[in-house]
């Protein structure tokens, strides 16, 4: 079938977070399954143009409504990570130094939504599936059914994926926003459409996408359940419960061509389950890079964005708990908040003479690969986590995850002591309560197993390497969803 992915990001040309990786991973898998996939993305001036192959103009005058006028945009085509991708210009809306973070972001992406629909309509692209991702594409379902359906285009089906409910496209100047793309705010600012459930004077773009889409997915089954409750739904729980018959969770995958310890050129020594002992050569390499003592201790690592979602207080607590429990601790991460970075620099300076800890405040791709390969345990103490990719990478590298039991972490990490699956069916450690006692409960068990039962620990690590968290199974799940909505 013909599928169009509409997205604000695609790796590596326009990447901010994990969404960009999901677009490429899922699209590649669908292509390998025999489907025809195009991606449509804004043409930001700040993109990595060196990461786009054969970029060329394919449409010179794409007229897009903008208040009482029509603006002319251009469309370019190229290959990103092997995927056919269209880039649509947006004048001042795309000529920016970064992808997000502007006061007019809502206007920028709503204009992009209308440009996408005009491009597909005028070029007679009629995908069987239009797959929209996150709030930046959330107006497309309503546009498709209320505008283009009346123009004779009514045989496509629209899927909307919620990657995170934290950002929903909440707007208190709805009339100005919808006027821009010639949509009547009175039609949409209604309790059964886009009116926000808790802020009646606001429209909520993500709410509208939930109402209008043929199917709504999110990035793990547990998160799909969690967002129907107030804490994780963040105001969307009412509409999600009303439309729960068309809501489902599909765990993201990771690219096994990139994340494979048997072929990874960024680590010191390649290994697999057949020569698992070679994993520990990377531990020596990691210690040498970070100037840690070469002693008989486990290495506990964290690779993350330093945001409240990721459990900042628990990460800080884990540094000292790991040292107290006889381990070494490695952190690779940075925050968009300078105050958070300053706090971790304070801890780094406080522990400057300790050769059992290294905090790298920033990001380094090669070091990230070596941390996954060279660590014994990988900590993800998130307050909430829609899916999570880092624990999937850790499993692939035989690094035992220690995670909080939430969202995708609960779906992918099976606790050796509490899952009921025994050693043979488990792959890590988890804890429920987002507090120091909960973290210490899981981390303490992991370190004790490493120290006292090394054969059991190594078995657990190798179990993780055998779990399949590639895009194969998610690709099948999405294919089933596409076929389901096509049949309705």
Write the layout of secondary structure elements.
Layout: E1 2-6, H1 18-32, E2 36-42, E3 53-66, E4 69-80, E5 83-88, H2 105-122, E6 129-133, H3 140-148, E7 157-162, E8 170-171, H4 174-180, H5 185-188, E9 203-204, H6 205-212, E10 215-218, H7 221-226, H8 230-233, H9 237-242, E11 247-249, H10 279-290, E12 299-305, H11 312-324, E13 328-334, H12 338-350, E14 357-361, H13 365-374, E15 377-380, H14 390-396, E16 400-404, H15 407-412, H16 422-425, E17 429-431, H17 436-452, H18 454-466, H19 472-487
- Terminal-residue CA separation: 16 Å
Number of DSSP strands?
17
Looking at the overall shape, the CATH architecture of the largest domain is: 3-Layer(aba) Sandwich
Q: Give the overall shape.
A: elongated
Describe this structure as you would to a colleague:
With 488 residues, this protein is of the alpha/beta class. It has two domains: 2-253 and 472-487, Rossmann fold, CATH 3.40.50.2000; 276-466, Glycogen Phosphorylase B (Rossmann fold). Helices cover 39% and strands 20% of the residues. It has a nine-stranded mixed sheet, with helices on both faces. Strand 13 (328-334), helix 12 and strand 14 form a beta-alpha-beta unit. The two termini are 16 Å apart.
What attributes does this structure have?
alpha/beta; 6-stranded parallel β-sheet; 39% helix; Rossmann fold; 9-stranded mixed β-sheet; 488 residues
